[in-house]
Structures are given as structure tokens and as C-alpha cells.
Amino acid sequence: MPTLKFHTIKWLDGELEILDQTLLPAQEKYIRLSNIRQVITAIKTLQLRGAPLIGVAAAYAIAMAASTCRSRIEFAVAVNEIKSARPTAVNLSWAVERMLVLYDASADAPDREQKLLDLARQIHAEDAEMCERIGVFGAELMPENGAVLTHCNAGALATAGCGTALGVIYEATRRGKKLSVFADETRPVLQGSRLTAWELMREGIDVTLITDSMAGHLMSRGTIDCVIVGADRIAINYDVANKIGTYSLAVLAKEHGIPFYVAAPTSTFDRQIASGIDIEIEQRDPSEVTDCGGLTIAPEHIRVYNPAFDVTPNPLITAIITDREIIRCKRWAEHTKS
Ligand code: MRU
Predict the structure, then answer these.
(1) What is the phi/psi pair of residue 17, to 5°?
(2) pLDDT tens for residues 176-197?
């Protein structure tokens, strides 16, 4: 696994230090979040983002709330705000629920605050371990020598470890596989160009940036050997919610007979939701679409639709790579035939 030259999140002297991802790639700046309001704002504004990383930050936010809220009601309000900061990534509510179980169970404990902080640290460490294991499971699925297409950022920047989809690429490279990566720029927030391209270049991986609309062309020319993406929520039937544009890529991959892999930790599986249709899709501010790099690129008052995620139905997925196993999906047979 790579020895990362940056960190996304660190608990330091009672505060959260995070890498402000809204400033990348121009500036690598760490900021301190000293209260839950700042953590919630950082999650909402994408200063920290990516489903697993949001979960880790939410766990620390609950620990902060437990030590600063003066009443049970104040704590309940804080929990609610943390939980609803972003609706699609289930890792957030998964981490909050884990923290709340301990909060309730340790009601009479004199060291409740410490216990909660210890659990947040454990969730943090577990996330890094899950990334490593995803890398190990996924590396074997990567071609010996080939091109991998990825979307959004499911790398170290999206987790507290080496990443999910990019973790697989790091581990395969470490094993000597010769991979080149095509990174979709990922409109409208450009996590692909601002974050994935930055991260992969820093880690010495061969990466080429493309706009989202170029993926089909590359596939039609036989340039792409497989697609690998992350996930924000996986339903019981293994439908996958991920960054907007993932579904289109999966359709394209199926059309061209290219394997489509999803890499995600167990914290991304939602055991309450039967299928993708029930997953809440976050709608984001229209300005993400109408403005780019400080410039307005659309007419004033234009109506905008800006869902941050879409759902890829399981039949379009070849396999889901988790920290425990490779879940072979309906498309698996297609890729084992040849
Ligand atoms: O809006 P973002 O940047 O939080 O969206 C992130 C993604 O869609 C990632 O692909 C997903 O969270 C998986 S990260 C390991």
C-alpha cells in the first residue's frame, strides 16, 4: 500500500484536523475544526467528502457533541444535524448509530466522553484497515497490464486510509501490475480532475484526465480494460448509489463487454434498504452546475437539476469488492467465460 504523502483527517488536541479538499489541487491546506458546527459545515461544503471519510468525521463529531452539549435535548439536536448533513452516504448514519449505542450503554460511566472518543478513533482505524483489505481482494481482478477507468474520487482522499477503488489500484501496482488510469473529471464538482488526478500523480500512478463524455469513445476503441468506482450506499439487492455519472459508465461498460467493479467497505452496505430505488439522492446547489472556477457558465435564472448521485442496478455490475470478500454479481459470468 502507498505511504501516503498527505492525511485526510486527524484528531489533534481535542480538535479535528482535515485537509480542505475544496482548495485542491491549488493548495494543500490543513484546517482545524474545533466544534460540531464546523464539522457539519465541512461535510456539507465538501471540505471533507467521500462516504467513508464522512462516516469517520461524523463519529468524531458525536464524540465532540457528547463532551460539549449541556443537555440531552441539545445532544439530540446535534445528533440529528450531524446525521442529516448529507443524506446519501450511509457511512454517516452507520457511524452515528454505532456511537449512539455506546452513548446509551455508557450513560452511567464516569468516563463516557473518553469511551466515545476511543470508539471514534477505532472507527477511524477500522476504515484504514478496510481499505487495505479491499485493496488485497481487488488487486487480483485488475489486469496484468492495462487501463482502468475511474469516476469521482474513491481514493485516499475519500477515506481515512488508502481508498477503496484507488486502494485496489495501489495494491495491484505494488504487486507489479502495470496499470494506467483514466480519471473522469466528474462534473459538476470535478472530484476526478481536482482530487483523483492530484492524488494519483502524487502517488506516482500513470493517470490521464478525460472529460466525462469521453469515456464511451475510449471504450469503443478498446482502450479501457475495466472500470472501478466507489459507492455511497449499497442496497440489499446490491444496487449501488455512487457519484452522478456512475450509472452511465456502467451502461457503457456493459455495452462494450468491459468488467465494471465497485469497491466499498462493509460500512457502505445498507441492510434496511431493499433496492436502489429507495436510496435518497442528495440534491445539491444549482451553482455547482451554473458556475465553474468562479465563472458563471449558464444564463441567469436557468432552471437546474443537480442530483449528486445516481443508482447503478446490480445487473450492470460485475463484482463488488469489499473488505471481506468479492461479491460476484449477475455480470460475473460474462467475464469469466472469456
Ligand atoms: O460528493 P462526494 O465527493 O462525497 O462523492 C463521493 C463519491 O461518490 C465516492 O465515489 C464515494 O463516496 C465512494 S468514496 C470511497
Answers:
(1) -100, 130
(2) 999 999 999 999 999 999 999 9
**Closest among 88, 138, 157 to 261, alpha carbons compared:** 138
Q: What is the DSSP string of 114-171?
A: HHHHHHHHHHHHHHHHHHHHHHHHHHTTS-SEEEEEE-S--BGGGSSSSBSHHHHHHH
pLDDT given at position 336: 77
pTM above 0.90, yes or no: yes
Measured distance CA(252)–CA(245) in Å, rounded: 11
Q: Which atom of ligand 1 lies nearest, measured to the CA of 282? A: 1
The finding on whether 88 has its CB within 6 A of some atom of ligand 1 is no
Domains defined along the chain, listed by start: 9-131 (1.20.120.420), 137-337 (3.40.50.10470)
Beta partners for residue 180, in sequence order: 147, 206
The set of catalytic residues is: 232
Q: Is residue 115 scored above 90 in pLDDT?
A: yes
Grid cell for residue 61 = 463529531
| SS3 category, 194 | helix
Q: What is the mean pLDDT of residues 265-279?
A: 97
Q: By C-alpha distance, which of 305, 294, 214 is closest to 26?
A: 294
